[in-house]
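BUG-319 | component: ligand-complex export | severity: low

The export step for adenosine monophosphate jobs runs without errors, but we want the raw record kept on the ticket for reference. Input record follows.
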Amino acid sequence: MTIIAAIDPESIINAAGILKEGRLVALPTETVYGLGADATNATAVAAIYTAKGRPSFNPLIAHVSDLSQATKEAYFSEIALKLAEKFWPGPLTIVAPVSSKCSVCDLARAGLDSVALRIPADLTAQKLISTLGRPIAAPSANRSGHISSVTAAHVGSDLFGKVDLILDGGPTKFGLESTIVSFCQPEPILLRAGMVTRETIESFLNQRIKSAADYKIIAPGMTASHYAPLATLRLNALDITEDEAAIDFGGQLIQFQKHSLWMRDLSPTQNLTEAAANLFTYLREADRSGTKKIAIAPIPTFGLGEAIQDRLIRASASK
Ligand code: AMP
Ligand code: MG
């Protein structure tokens, strides 16, 4: 069931309660409507992908309510902080290296060591985040491949029955996505053009900003928006060899556990939402175990399995 609610103090408290339970709320922002989940809860973030029908995992923007919450999540360089102070709240997203206190889950970051953060200017969005007291992960509130929603009615026509609550804040102010600037390299890089123009940022900082495309030529891989494990992956494994760690699904490899250096099961009960929620955390743990090879059990190719497969195929092909 999907409820569409007008904005008042009660609907915001209700929305924060829904998010706290790990369910989804569509919320207005000044750019486009977001499909929001508690960014600290990987199962809730997995539900975003199910609702959107997105066949791949990409890192999401974590929306925060103030600068102190942002600087708790990531390390801000002097220049990143300068930009945040100038353009927040507003349609600018800053990508920065995660801090040791980062609460945004691995799935919302697609396993990366960086996190995309934004303080939206929309007051409903701000109130919802501060009431929840945690960052909200929110990509655009539309089915995968459809255009972004700029009214609650658009959200309803794409996601009715797939989101618990739609907060109707009227048409969004801008209707265009946020600008994304990364501060993970020595100089800022424009990852996505958006509401705040390159010229505005360049004249404020008094320097030229490279685009991701320019930067890839200079330093291939450094602007990659996907986590690649250090170990080599062997997909659709039906056994485990002695030099392999293993990531199982539904107990298919359990009989070989004695051979395995390190082993986890993405979901012993074959629940794909649980598997998606564990995916990046387990890949990282496997890497940390020091193994050079990881055997991965067959994963179903339907529902969220498609996005899991997509991620694993890309990770194995990058070797
Ligand atoms: P959306 O949430 O659909 O507006 O898209 C978010 C955009 O931010 C995507 O293009 C992501 O690739 C990008 N993004 C989010 N987090 C990161 C990150 N840690 N590093 C690089 N790009 C990111
Ligand atoms: Mg979108």
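Assignee comment: Attached the raw record above. DSSP finds ten helices and 15 strands in the chain.
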